[in-house]
């Protein structure tokens, strides 16, 4: 008598459980689907977003960035084809052919390289570079012997040498031996003390004589 009732209750609970699970699953799938859409939308930037750094950040796959800009602008991908080569210091190159200088300098641990100078810009080896030269790497390359280059830079620039006259003078004066020799050599001072201060014809005068200029008058 109770067996059919028991089976019916079990069947009822099973059906209710399956239906509730299906609703929860559908709700969960919708929730996940919405989240995935949101993630997809936030993964790329729309046109004219002006803080991109790499092409993959933009939905158009083209982040236009000048060499002196910190951030670029997401532009239509059609404009990317209009730019045949990348300018100097463009920092997303992979191959030499991408750079106008045909020189994509890339270290082993870099994901992207930098469009560096070509041989014409660097010039011939063995010649010192004047002040203002922008592609030095060692002090010996500059005529001024001063290449200002940060450790993170590929290249530096030749700067004017600092004035060394004050430093050299200070070094000489700090030497006691040199200082004593400088003090003993006073220009225009005779070591022979004259008897009288007035001179006539190159000889010492007596107190009753006048200078020879007045004698001629």
Automatic annotation (TrEMBL):
Residues 1-20 form the signal peptide. The keyword Signal applies. Keywords: Signal. It comes from the Eukaryota. This is WAP domain-containing protein.
């Amino acid at each position: 008598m109770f067996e059919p009732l028991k089976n019916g209750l079990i069947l009822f609970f099973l059906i209710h459980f399956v239906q509730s699970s299906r609703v929860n699953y559908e709700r969960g799938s919708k929730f996940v689907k919405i989240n995935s859409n949101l993630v997809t939308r936030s993964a790329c930037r729309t046109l004219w977003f002006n803080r991109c750094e790499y092409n993959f950040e933009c939905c158009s796959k083209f982040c236009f960035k000048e060499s002196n800009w910190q951030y670029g602008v997401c532009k239509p991908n059609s404009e990317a084809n209009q730019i045949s080569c990348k300018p100097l210091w463009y920092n997303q190159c992979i191959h030499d052919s991408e750079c106008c200088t045909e020189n994509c300098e890339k270290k082993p641990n870099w994901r992207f390289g930098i469009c560096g100078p070509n041989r014409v810009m660097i010039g011939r080896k063995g010649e010192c570079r004047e002040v203002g030269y922008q592609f030095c790497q060692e002090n010996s390359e500059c005529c001024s012997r001063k290449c200002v280059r940060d450790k993170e830079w590929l290249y530096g620039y030749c700067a004017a040498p600092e004035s060394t006259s004050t430093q050299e003078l200070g070094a000489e004066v700090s030497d006691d031996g040199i200082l004593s020799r400088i003090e003993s050599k006073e220009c225009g001072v005779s070591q022979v003390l004259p008897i009288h201060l007035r001179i006539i014809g190159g000889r010492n005068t007596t107190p009753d004589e006048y200078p020879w200029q007045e004698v001629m008058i």
